[in-house]
Amino acid sequence: MLLRRFILTSLLLSLCACLPALETGFANSAGSNRIIYGLTLQPSGFDPHINRSSELGIPLRQVYDTLVYRDPATKEIVPGLANEWSISEDGLVYTFKLSEGVTFHDGTAFNAQAVGANLDRITAPDTGSQLAAFLLGPYAGYQIVDSNTIQIVLSDPYSPLLDSLAQVYLGIASPTALSQYSKDRYQFHQVGTGPFEFVEYVPGDRIVLRRNPNYAWGPAFYAAPNEQSINEIEFRFFTDPPTRSLALESGEAQVMGELLPTDARALTGNSSVQLIPQSVPGQPLQFLMNTGQFPTDSRAVRQALIFGANRNAIIDAVFQQFSPVAWGPLTGNTLYYDANVRGLYPHDLNQAQALLDGAGYTDSDNNGYRDIGGVTIEVKVIVPPWGLIPETAQLLQDQWRTIGIRAVLEPVPTFGALLDAINAGDYNLVAYNTYGLDPVFLNDFFMSGGANNWTGYASEDLDRILSDAGRQTDVNVRFSLYAQAQRIIMDEALVLPIRDQVNLNASSAAVSGLTFDPYGWFPLLNNAIMITG
Question: Among 35, 73, 100, 127, which is most exposed with the fewest C-beta within 10 angstroms?
């Protein structure tokens, strides 16, 4: 078995250098250096193994460690609860050497058996995992070699596994707590190994965390705490967007995520507040086009819709120039993004008109909208309420009117209603975006059998390319395959990309050292400090 070692000596040395300070340094003092962190949505559930909301990861990234991390500066995979790992030559067995001396917040020892208990829970059908089980890919089981060594076994090579294991949804929970509390009750009594302990969760009101005074095993980029370190965090829900900036300015909250772009723009002149925008990798805000529904079953119509969209105007008016224009199915900071898609489908009304003319669509009755055989060209757009999608859709509606296409906007109030509308099949475009560093998520949206193949597009070539990309370990080969996939998706005009996602966070100027993990959503509050005086 050929072993490929992923041991980063310099990182391990710096980690070791931190340990004495972590062990003997600052002690927890509840109530001092306390911050209010504003959350924007109330998760329907709060268990990382069960629920998939990005909102839950904001507090729980502080509670749980993962087997590996992604360094926020380099985006490289680095040691976490596993201090080294190796991959078998066939790509089916990942062997992890676990850190020793680690304890959960309840005093339970961390070991291979604990990791196994978590894997059992995540993959059990009764758990009903919405994301964590999916992240494990072609998971086939595990083998405990000894108390500090575990092997994860796959049925098929799966290059994104390490990236998955770095995500909070695969955080390692205390097996004692998992057995003590039912599936429904565990979310109120969560126990990890991370730098903050879970104190309480009152749905719709607050989540309280307190610093773990025994924390001595964090990744190398975690600093040792000192007298300025944040000791206690109360997460509160600010579901009404206009209240978020007001809470910051009044001092009601010290950190806030997902500000409205207009509010963020207004705060730029306020010296007591600092903006912390974070680029989010993954899929941009985009409109996926249904290839099985008239008139978007026509490639020419799909292309005309893209050429007819003035994305720069949308970025200026809706997103206040905080977001870059998106050009393809991946954002610019996603792994294996192909810069050659930049500039495809610029705003070009003449090209849009020519495509529609060539497809036989004319305004035969001079009502301002094109038709063919007496049938008006009309596109039905599913519009969820989040992410300024309604405002974006309204501008697109106006822009498409200039090329003779009528857009009918169909609002849906919830994610469940969005899925219901998609499953009904009576739509032409649907707005959606998702996040992730590894583009394996494209499989779900663009492979023939993908669970979220809302375009209805089916291509053996694209299926093969995406399948191969997930199996390959050579980064150059993966880049080539994903470049091909991105070009096919855009050549076929399967999506109208709008903007790369940017998470507009802000904090009081008294908060320093606030950084985020490479996924763009989750703060790393271990290093945050309060500046006084």
Answer: 73
Is 530:346 a contact under the CB 8 Å cutoff? Answer: no
pLDDT tens digit sequence for 370-391: 999 889 999 999 999 999 999 9
Question: Cis peptide before 295, with omega less than 30 degrees from 0?
Answer: yes
Q: Are 383 and 393 in contact (CB under 8 A)?
A: yes
Question: Domain 285-500 belongs to what topology?
Answer: Dipeptide-binding Protein; domain 3 (3.10.105)
Kindly report the backbone phi and psi dihedral angles of residue 82, in degrees, each rounded to the nearest multiple of 5, phi listed first. -100, 125
Contact predicate 511/254, CB 8 Å: yes
pLDDT lower than 70: segments of the chain? 1-32, 533
What is the assigned CATH class of domain 9-15+32-254?
alpha beta
307, containing H or E segment:
helix 299-307
> What is the phi-psi region of residue 307: left when phi exceeds 0, alpha when psi lies from -120 to 50, beta otherwise?
alpha
Residue 282's nearest CA partner among 337, 320, 327, 340 is 337
Report angle CA 25, 28, 32 to the nearest 5 degrees. Answer: 120
Where are the domains positioned within the chain? 9-15+32-254, 285-500
Q: Which of 36, 85, 39, 31 is nearest to 58 (CA)?
A: 39
Short-list 509, 506, 511, 505, CA closest to 33: 511
Q: Which helix (H) or strand (E) holds 100?
A: none
Q: What is the pLDDT at residue 12?
A: 36
**In this structure, what are the phi and psi dihedrals at residue 19, rounded to the nearest 5 degrees?**
-60, -45
In 254-337, the DSSP E strands lie at 255-256, 273-279, 285-289
Which helix (H) or strand (E) covers residue 142, if one does? strand 139-146
